[in-house]
Design brief:
Layout lengths: L8 H7 L14 E6 L26 E3 L5 E3 L2 E6 L5 E6 L13 H14 L11 E8 L2 E6 L6 H5 L8 H4 L6 H4 L12 E7 L3 E6 L12 E6 L3 H9 L4
Parallel strand pairs: 1-10
Antiparallel strand pairs: 2-3, 4-5, 5-7, 6-7, 8-9, 9-10
């Protein structure tokens, strides 16, 4: 099993509290989470509030590791030229989307160019000043900038999700921001969206193809409540 990664370290800690008998590791586990608001939309093109949940579905090149520290995500390592204009990223080998399709530097380049070419509202501001993005080979991604971007890792790529070309390549224009099928969140993260009723609940199941190891729980259910009091009552009743 690979090391447990953010964003589900907290989920792992909560999972330790589940009443699962010792030795029953093969028994499916479900984590129920109460909230007063799940997210505004599952569409990554305009879903701003979803930044607290989206990492469960879709990866970024780098991840926040606390404080001023960052760690590899889809990119194992990276380097920048002395003039700050050329960035290269080593993309992990063997990564797939949750549907089993390969995710290489080619898909990463496609995803970033998709954001730039379509001026995707939720992410375009993080990719300003990028002139070209290309895959030099299946594991090498190169970005060429018009001017240095010192916070490329800490404040830019940290918030750009890698989406699936097989979902988005045939969607264009206004349809990009209105698309609401479940595969809008298809990615390489630890979980897959399996059911979502806006204003009610969201269900996601573990991604069997996840590159980072087996997720800590098999299913996560987010249950939305009208207010904090209703959520507390559900907690006291053992429903979440």
């Amino acid at each position: 099993m690979g090391k447990l990664r953010k964003p589900f370290v907290i989920l792992f800690i909560l999972a330790l509290l589940l009443p699962v008998a010792a030795g029953a590791q093969d028994q499916p586990t479900t984590l129920r989470v109460g909230t007063t608001y799940i997210m505004d939309t599952i569409n990554p093109a305009n879903g701003f509030y979803g930044y607290n949940i989206r990492p469960l579905w879709q990866d970024t090149l780098v991840e926040w590791a606390g404080g001023q520290n960052f760690e590899p995500g889809l990119a194992e390592n990276w380097s920048v030229s002395d003039d700050g204009l050329v960035w290269q990223f080593k993309i992990r080998e063997g990564v797939t989307y949750s549907d089993g399709a390969p995710l290489t530097a080619n898909e990463v380049a496609w995803s970033l160019n998709w954001v730039i070419d379509n001026e995707i509202p939720s992410m375009i501001s993080y990719l300003s000043n990028i002139e070209t993005v290309e895959a030099l080979d299946p594991t090498t991604l190169q970005m060429t900038l018009g001017a240095p971007v010192p916070d490329m890792i800490s404040a830019k790529l940290l918030f750009v999700w890698i989406v699936a070309p097989q979902v988005w390549e045939n969607i264009s224009g206004d349809d990009i921001t209105t698309y609401s099928e479940y595969d809008a969140v298809l990615g390489s993260g630890p979980y897959m969206l399996t059911d979502f009723q806006e204003g009610e609940y969201m269900i996601m199941d573990a991604n069997p193809n996840y590159w980072g190891g087996k997720p800590p729980v098999d299913r996560i259910i987010y249950q939305e409540y009208a207010n904090d009091d209703a959520m507390i009552q559900a907690l006291l009743a053992g429903e979440i």
